[in-house]
Design a protein that fits this description.
- The protein is α/β, with parallel strands linked by helices and 65 residues long.
- It has one domain.
- The protein is 29% helix and 18% strand.
- It contains two helices and three strands; from the N terminus they run βαβαβ.
- The protein has a three-stranded parallel beta sheet with strand order 1-2-3.
- Strand 1, helix 1 and strand 2 form a beta-alpha-beta unit.
- The longest helix is centred in the middle third of the chain and has 10 residues.
- It is elongated, with a radius of gyration of 12 Å.
- It starts with 6 loop residues before the first strand and ends in a 13-residue tail after the last strand.
Length: 65
């Protein structure tokens, strides 16, 4: 099956490291939602997520990748 997708947009709890890596290897941008803790935001930034959706956007300031 061939999909013409540009993004993987998934609930973070179901987006494991291997899923992020596979999506990136296949040229997809990865956006995870809804992350509301600084620790989880940092974790997904390190995994390589291109975007993070949050109800608390202030936790995204200063993320280290």
């Amino acid at each position: 099956m061939e999909l013409k997708a540009n993004y993987l947009i998934a609930l973070y709890r179901f987006t494991h490291t291997a899923t992020v890596q596979k999506a990136l290897e296949n040229g997809l941008k990865v956006i995870v939602w809804t992350i509301n803790s600084p620790e989880e935001a940092q974790e997904y930034a390190k995994k390589g997520a291109d975007g993070i959706a949050s109800d608390k956007p202030d936790i995204l300031k200063g993320l280290n990748t």
